[in-house]
Amino acid sequence: MDREELLTSPVKDLKVNGSTTLMDLMNAFEKSGGFTSAKIFSAYSVIKKMFEEDNTTFLSFPADIIATGTRGIINEMVRKKLVDVIITTNGTLDHDIARTFTDYYSGTFDYSDRELRDLGINRLGNVFVPDESYGEIIENKVQPILEELYSRKKEWGGSELLKEFGSRLDNDDSILHNASRNNIPVYVPGMTDGSFGSQLWSFYERNRDFKVNLLQDEHELSDIVFEAKKTGALMIGGGISKHHTIWWNQFRGGLDYAVYVTTAQEYDGSLSGARLEEAISWKKMKSDAEFVNVYGDATALLPIMIGPLL
């Protein structure tokens, strides 16, 4: 590009007031020049294409944000069928099930963890999770469903199992419920982790012929990626959920679209810190893919990026 082509978009000052909508703000971000605001607009534009085009859209995220109000943003995307495939971590199952029946509470990062332990309160960042809102409630709700499903057959695919659980959570605030209702598969490659995973193990200890076939999930994912005309991904945070998303898409030559929201940095070589550019070298992203990395806390960024599309 020559000099004239590079100097075509003057920076415009942001003008906001009490009546400014999320869409107004998004349009203003387009011309704001810098720094994260411009990336938020780019991310919004890519996500909008993923949602509107004939595209198989993956949504990946870690469990921690499901302990926060951001669960509502994720759930609304699922409820409105804006995404086609969910890949997440086991804690998402824990928090979604627990919060369907009990409450978590706003807390603080700075409270004494020794005192919280004595009070029977677990701290997840600045969210307080009472003992009765986690392990006990999950056990009480999961075990009867496992007994019922076991009476039908002894072996279940992971996503197949979660669809059955979602169908029994009659609550419109539940991600699993809306995923089940809308036939959006939920894949948890690390399903034996966390409280839900411990319930699977506990049930297996009493019923040794009970099996969760995670390779069935991989077979289903292979069908999804090979049958897709295009694929896109909104990846919130890193870890196994991000990696499983880009891993499977390498087999079709890579993602066509991607937005990655993260607080991790790439200096330590971690997958969570790896920018989407690195995925191109692994053929997990197409070389001509439309993508953007957005740095910041998803609990603040997602409502701004997704709100105008809901």
In short:
It contains 14 helices and eleven strands. With 310 residues, it is of the alpha/beta class.
Describe the structure.
There is one protein chain. The protein is α/β, with parallel strands linked by helices. It is 47% helix and 17% strand. The protein has 14 helices and eleven strands. It has helices spanning 3-6, 22-30, 36-52, 71-79, 90-101, 113-119, 135-152, 158-167, 175-181, 194-206, 214-227, 239-249, 276-281, 298-306; strands at residues 56-61, 85-88, 105-106, 121-124, 127-130, 155-157, 186-187, 211-213, 231-236, 255-262, 285-295. A hairpin with a 2-residue loop joins β4 and β5 (127-130). α8 packs across α9 (175-181). The longest helix has 18 residues, at 135-152. The model has no long low-confidence stretch (mean pLDDT 96).
* Series of H and E elements: HHHEHEHEHEEHEHHEHEHEHEHEH
Head-to-tail CA distance between termini: 36 Å
What oligomeric state do these chains adopt?
A: single chain
Tally of helical runs: 14
Helix-strand makeup class: alpha/beta
Spatially, the strands of the biggest sheet line up as: 7-2-1-9-10-11
Strand content: 15-25%
Residue runs with pLDDT of under 50 for 5 or more positions: none
General shape: globular
Radius of gyration: 21 Å
Number of strands: 11
**What integer is the average pLDDT?**
96
Question: Describe the biggest sheet?
Answer: 6 strands, parallel
Percent helix, as a range, is: 40-55%
